[in-house]
Design brief:
single chain; disordered N terminus; alpha/beta; 35% helix; 16 strands; two-stranded parallel ribbon
């Protein structure tokens, strides 16, 4: 028996079940149709649910399923480990079929794993859930830990979606903004030197290759998610060659997507327009530094760093981490950090690995807790602890 749904196969044999021992019913999960097998003693209800989430079910003749999905887990610094703990509690309570390969790495903490261990794990598992790592300041090594990971895995595109959540009251309503940021070069190229005492040169690198593939990623994202418009954010009026090349690259790629509206805006005006009239934007595609600034502005518009998820992509790997990259070190051990962003990152990760049922279940539970307004962390005007918020999400999973 072969049932296909998003590339998933259910393999059966005479030892596993016979045609007369089962009936098939069609069930809708989101906009995907999947075939669930019932009226059989081989699969239990929970195992059938696994099929609806897009997993493979391979029997060993006794009705046992294959092992869970394995995901690399990096706790990060600051409140990262506390938020990751919240995710693990939710996954455990919800029976989410994911096993975490946890690796601690930090450039400011102790007992850190090596970079090679982390890269090998992510390359093996292809997906990572990550807390925020603090980048040290001073005159040490120029290339940060985050930068090294992105370069080693070629994570050229960062996506941050800032969306209004019912129950969070902000100045602007019904926002749904996506910032797609190039994160391999620009001002973050880590090319600095002191040419003479008291004079530092910091090189900004912009290449057509990276700019064009980011633009193509942004337009493909727009098509896949039915977005209507892309705005290229730049400063080509001042940095005529560097930002001029980025703008030109985006403009050229836009000609291949006539159904997606394209315009451009200078970065300083973009920031002003975001706080005064954000509804005019849909997707903003940016060079490295501007994207880091703009996605923090958009996060502030919808409730702050605690509610906005993010993700980074290469052609082969994906890392899911909070969109506004703040480790919130001052809150360590106080049990006050908002787990929303990390839980939504986990939901997006589940969708990425085709566990759509669990992804929807988790995001719906988080949304229900926020919209009910009974359990709010301090950043949202309440007094609930991180633990209380996590428990409320667990209570709404079923």
């Amino acid at each position: 028996i072969t049932c296909a749904c998003e590339g998933v196969r259910l393999l059966g044999s005479s030892k596993m079940m016979s045609m007369t021992s089962m009936t098939a019913c069609l069930r809708r999960v989101g906009d995907k149709s999947v075939t669930l097998l019932r009226n059989t003693k081989v699969f239990e209800t929970k195992q059938l649910a696994l099929l609806s989430t897009g997993q493979s079910l391979l029997s060993n003749g006794e009705g046992e399923t294959t092992k869970n999905k394995i995901v690399t887990l990096i706790p990060g610094d600051g409140v990262g480990p506390e938020l990751i703990h919240a995710v693990k509690e939710v996954f455990r309570s919800g029976g989410i079929p994911v096993d975490f390969e946890e690796i601690y790495i930090s450039e400011v903490g102790y007992h850190s794993a090596s970079m090679n261990e982390v890269i090998e794990s992510i390359k093996r598992n292809r997906v990572c859930l990550k807390g925020i790592n603090t980048s040290g300041t001073g005159t040490g090594e120029l290339r940060s830990l985050n930068n090294k990971i992105r370069r080693a895995l070629d994570l050229f595109a960062n996506v941050v979606r800032s969306r209004s959540l019912p129950g969070i009251h902000t100045k602007h309503d019904n926002l749904d903004l996506v910032v797609i940021r190039e994160q391999m070069e620009g001002e973050y190229s880590s090319l600095e030197h002191e040419s003479v005492p008291g004079v530092v040169e910091s090189l900004k690198i912009i290449t057509r290759a990276n700019s064009s593939r980011l633009a193509a990623f942004a337009f493909d994202y727009a098509v896949r998610h039915n977005r209507r418009k892309i705005t290229c954010v730049h400063k080509a009026n001042i940095m005529k060659l560097a930002d001029g090349l980025f703008l030109d690259s985006c403009t050229e790629v836009s000609k291949l997507y006539p159904d997606v509206e394209f315009d451009s805006m200078i970065v300083d005006n973009t920031c002003m327009q975001l706080v005064s009239n954000p509804n005019q934007f849909d997707i903003l595609v940016t060079p490295n530094l501007y994207g880091n600034i703009v996605d923090n502005v958009t996060a502030g518009l919808v409730g702050g760093a605690g509610v906005v998820p993010g993700e980074s992509h290469s052609n082969n790997y994906a890392i899911f981490e909070p969109g506004a990259r703040h480790s919130f070190a001052t809150a360590v051990g106080k049990n006050i950090a908002n787990p929303t962003a990390m839980l939504l990152c986990a939901s997006n990760m589940l969708k990425h690995i085709n566990l759509n049922y669990y992804s929807k279940q988790l995001s719906t539970a988080v949304g229900k807790v926020i919209s009910d307004g009974k359990v709010r962390t301090r950043d949202l005007g309440g007094y609930a602890t991180s633990t209380e918020f996590t428990q409320a999400v667990i209570d709404n999973l079923h």
